Amino acid sequence: MTPAVPDVSFVLNVSLLVMLLAVAVAIAVTRSLLAAILLLSVYSFLGAAWLMVMDAADVAFTEAVVGAGVSTLVLLGALLLTRGETIKTDWKQQIGPLALVLAVGGLLIYAAAGLPGYGDPASPANSYVGRAYLQATYNDIGAPNVVTAVLASYRGFDTLGETTVIFAACIGVALMLDPGSSGAPAQASRIRPGQHIVLKVISKLLIPLIILFAFYVQFHGDLGAGGGFQAGVTLAVAVILHALVFGLDETTRAFPPHLMRAISSGGVMVYSAVGVVCILNGGGFLDYDFLFTPQLEAAIPPGLLGDPDSKHHWGQHFGILLIELGVLLTVSSTMVSIFFGFAGRAPRAASVGQGG
Amino acid sequence: MSEPVQMIGGALILLGAIWSIMGAVGVLRFPDVYTRIHAASLTDTGAATLMLFGMGLMGEAGMVTLKLFFVWAFIMLTTPTSANALANAAFGSGHSPRIGNFQIVRGKNGGGSAPDRGARA
Question: Does A196 contact chain B (CB < 8 Å)?
């Protein structure tokens, strides 16, 4: 495939990769940690744009939300707890790390040469299992989005593991940073009334839209790009934006940290409960075809979802919907608790630093 | 879609690209924070408007046009806000503009954390 005029995605790929490289070099060179964090955000955003060019929309906006948004904020919060510059080290101490980095980088480049080409139909990912999923999904699951079908149904057990990992992250941050339980009086909000009016007005406009978008992504996961993970981080961003603009106190009144932790475990429980219900109805764990008892399934009027054949897939539809709900709950509340954990400490540290 | 409309759309996109480059040069060359913010936010609003309008003319009228309109509305809401927040933060942390003098206003308006940080310490 070598057209005389390079096609648009090729030009986009090259320019985005060049920009990624430039930003990566800038991150490595800069001494200011603040600049490095902001450049990391730029890096993530460029990465998201690049993933979008590669048609991976769901990965792209997770990267945009988490990489460019939430993790930047968490890092900024962490920066308030530490010093703002890197320590200058002797160049002799850096020879060892440099050699290691070069060796690993060389290995990665060597490995990349062995990867199949982008979109290669003969690549292993596209030929055996991938093709089987593409062929079987319509009959087995009935969901138009094969990615969601694989993620939530065929490999529901893996996704349960991932959700549990996220829940574990929530617990870990809660144990280390202990958000909310501090008896420290409210000095968290650094934004006083009357300031940042423009920000407040625009945020009030945007937060409902962000939440609406999150729910769209959530319920559209069957049909298009999206699902519980993407919707969860988007929902969390709405809460975090509120905390940034209106102060942490206001937000923790609406979303108390202990409630966030409870929801985080609740999401995993919703997910596992779906699996247990399937067992009780005679199927395997997370076998959504057994989600409804035969009597319940018989009670559903045919053609309710439009297609008369679709009744067969009701269990699958509802199973996916329910476990995506569990994922949404866990992911969003975990993101919010992690942010609370860092943000709740930052003002205290800042005031200690000022001797206040 | 007729040929002249396509050409106008293409010309608008090209103009938007030139505008972006001008904005980038402005960000690099302008003397202080505020003029740089000005250059950057003009790129965000002006160039994006030109490009999105050009795309709307080039694409088929319908859903795509509507989506482009929403993208435009989103950009027009968010980027001036971020420019405002940035300028506010720069003012609050004590950056004074190179051209002109706003020192008199500063004590009264506060504008950020710098004055009262001094008061607290």
Answer: yes
